[in-house]
Design a protein that fits this description.
Its cofactor is FAD. This protein is of the alpha/beta class and 399 residues long. It has nine helices and 26 strands. It folds into two domains: 191 residues, 3-Layer(bba) Sandwich (FAD/NAD(P)-binding domain), CATH 3.50.50; 121 residues, FAD/NAD(P)-binding domain. Helices cover 26% and strands 27% of the residues. 51% of the residues are buried. The structure holds flavin-adenine dinucleotide.
Length: 399
Amino acid sequence: MSTTDTTQEIQVVARTHVVVLGAGYAGAMAANRLRRNPAVAVTVVNPQPFFVQRIRLHQFVSGTGDPLVGFDDVLADDIRVVVDTATRIDAGARRVHLASGAHLDYDHLIYAIGTRHRTPEIPGAEHALFIADWASAQRIRERVEGLGAHEMITVVGGGLTGIEVAAELAERGHDVRLVGGRGIASSVGERARSATEKQLIRLGVDVVDTGRVVEIGERTVTVDIDGERNVLPSAATILATGFEAPELAADSGLATDEIGRLRTDATLAGIDDDRIVGAGDAVAVEGMPLRMSCQAAEPLGAQAAEAVLARIAGEQPNPVDQGFVAQCASIGRRAATLQFTRRDDSPARAVVTGRLAAWTKELVCRGTVWNIRHEATHPGAFRWFRGGDLTTTTEPALR
Ligand SMILES: Cc1cc2nc3c(=O)[nH]c(=O)nc-3n(C[C@H](O)[C@H](O)[C@H](O)COP(=O)(O)OP(=O)(O)OC[C@H]3O[C@@H](n4cnc5c(N)ncnc54)[C@H](O)[C@@H]3O)c2cc1C
């Protein structure tokens, strides 16, 4: 892995050049897998000079875990890393413009820039913090560290991300309220849902199951509970209410869905241009709704690389083939909920809770990094659960 100073004009390499935008779970996996073909030169563009384990950001905000991993630990030696942000893709010229003013020319591009928070239409949302990416997590940590004893933190959003944040903070001794909106853990089955809620309450979280936040103040939050407006103290309000993709694809004139994700066909090729291949949370694969997750992102990254390698070889890429195995949320460090799923992510019968689930979740977190690291030294080794046709799936669960 080598890092390039972007104040210089970036040299274009003579071999087939693949640029990977974003070095998260999908992009890092894709970059390593591309090395199955030694004739391919790989450049990765990422704003941070390290790999951020997004699935540990709730640990970072509460001080229970470090989400950062050096690129030298997860990317293959001959991958060039450019620490910069892509600002526009000129598909016609096959060129990516970067925030530093430099540009990169490519033969093929992998678009894997993930997602960020989506600001809901709640009056006063400018007072809120968001849990989505490295920058937003740093802001939460700063605020949380400045809170006095027993100052209330409100986490909004009863999906798996909101649950993980609320639990982690409560276990560290903070006063936490979790406002469910659409309910707590509505994506898992009833047994898993009720175990999750019980564990949250055990940790001291004030669970407002179906309450809906209707206004956010500097130090208050207004919650509608059964039609009644309740103004409650909230020294920090953290929204975990959903993600959207950055504007890059839309600003570059590429086809996107309603939350800004690059639209691709079933082989991950961009609808407008098959030299641009998408992977991870930042893409909407035609007819295949996938829950935003590293569980989906790593297989997508591997398949994006395979699609590019197939095109370089003059072959037709295969359609995406993957499925889900489980939904898993940590509930502090000592418990978790592991809901096994059918391949379309709908809940199956098996549920594991408590310490065994917490231990499994920790193994999963380590495993996601191990997968990428192993792919760096053994390109092509990563295997995933192939789910077959998921086109009957309707609505993906909210993370
Ligand atoms: C608190 C939390 C807990 C989670 N827990 C789980 C879990 O337990 N299990 C699970 O499956 N999923 C979990 N998720 C979701 C999971 O983190 C994402 O689905 C996953 O990170 C998606 O991977 P990705 O590679 O598509 O995007 P990311 O991991 O977000 O990587 C995208 C990369 O692109 C970079 N980038 C952004 N814009 C640009 C640009 N313009 N130019 C270049 N680079 C750019 C970003 O900085 C980032 O490094 C969690 C998310 C959060 C926030």
